[in-house]
């Protein structure tokens, strides 16, 4: 696991965007694992710009998102589908057949989750899996205590995650308490993983992760210690407690 502090928020975000851009530009049929959240906004902004100025052919690009809130309408302003369309899919003209988010309705939940993993297995491995991190160390919505062999499934969000997500909702009552998340095992099956962590709030978890010598299921991100190709990209604010 390689840690890199790139200084500013912008430089860290741009580095991640450039790595993704190069993969898409040079490998026509790129498979990407994508994340949402505040951290990723500048990544997608830069990625869109790079794809456009280079007239990159994205006709064979295919993406799988990490997660989606359970039973939230896909057109809801807070759904991850809406986020992805606004920040990436619509901006670069991706077709519906090119992007995948976990099916989040209440029908055939287990079958749909198995099918999601199977599609990733059949088409994969994902060339790059993009990750953010929760203040409690979650990756995707794999909360502390998640077994490292977990697959895509319905999960209960923890209080800290619900509180962190509530900043995007007008009414706290509306914040979803469940999500469908890619499992840790699914994430670890990717060829390359880039985790981006920005801002003060991620400093404590990042210092903890940096000091860990062995994986521990209480810190889901520590599962990345078992993967051969992981980069943890930070800004100064996140890296400030790393000695
Ligand atoms: C989102 C996801 C989450 C976020 C994490 C950080 O698809 O999988 O793990 O990456 O909660 O969120 P932000 O970036 O909003 O701090």
UniProtKB/TrEMBL annotation:
Residues 14-225 form the Glucosamine/galactosamine-6-phosphate isomerase domain. The keyword Nucleotide-binding does not apply. GO terms for biological process: carbohydrate metabolic process; N-acetylglucosamine metabolic process. Gene3D superfamilies: 3.40.50.1360. One of its GO terms (molecular function) is glucosamine-6-phosphate deaminase activity. CDD domains: GlcN6P_deaminase. Keywords: Carbohydrate metabolism. Pfam families: Glucosamine_iso (PF01182). InterPro entries: Glc/Gal-6P_isomerase, GlcN6P_deaminase-like, Glucosamine6P_isomerase, Glucosamine6P_isomerase_CS, NagB/RpiA_transferase-like. PANTHER family: GLUCOSAMINE-6-PHOSPHATE DEAMINASE-LIKE PROTEIN BT_0258-RELATED, GLUCOSAMINE-6-PHOSPHATE ISOMERASE. This is Glucosamine-6-phosphate deaminase. It comes from Macrococcus lamae.
């Amino acid at each position: 696991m390689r840690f890199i502090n790139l200084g500013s928020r912008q430089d860290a975000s741009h580095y991640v965007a450039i790595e993704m851009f190069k993969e898409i530009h040079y490998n026509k049929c790129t498979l990407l694992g994508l994340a949402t959240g505040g951290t990723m906004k500048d990544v997608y902004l830069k990625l869109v710009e790079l794809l456009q100025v280079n007239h990159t052919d994205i006709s064979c690009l295919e993406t799988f998102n990490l997660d989606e809130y359970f039973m939230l309408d896909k057109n809801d302003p807070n759904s991850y589908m809406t986020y992805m369309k606004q920040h990436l899919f619509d901006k670069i003209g991706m077709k519906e057949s090119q992007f995948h988010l976990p099916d989040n309705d209440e029908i055939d939940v287990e079958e749909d989750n198995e099918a999601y993993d199977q599609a990733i297995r059949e088409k994969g491995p994902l060339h790059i899996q993009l990750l953010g991190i929760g203040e409690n160390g979650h990756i995707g919505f794999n909360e502390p205590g998640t077994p490292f062999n977990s697959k895509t499934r319905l999960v209960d969000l923890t209080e800290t995650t619900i509180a962190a997500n509530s900043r995007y909702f007008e009414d706290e009552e509306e914040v979803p308490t469940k999500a469908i998340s890619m499992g840790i095992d699914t994430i670890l099956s990717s060829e390359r993983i880039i985790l981006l962590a920005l801002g003060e709030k991620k400093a404590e978890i990042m210092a903890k992760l940096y000091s860990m010598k062995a994986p521990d299921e209480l810190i889901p991100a520590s599962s990345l210690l078992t993967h051969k190709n992981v980069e943890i990209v930070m800004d100064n604010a996140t890296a400030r407690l790393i000695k």
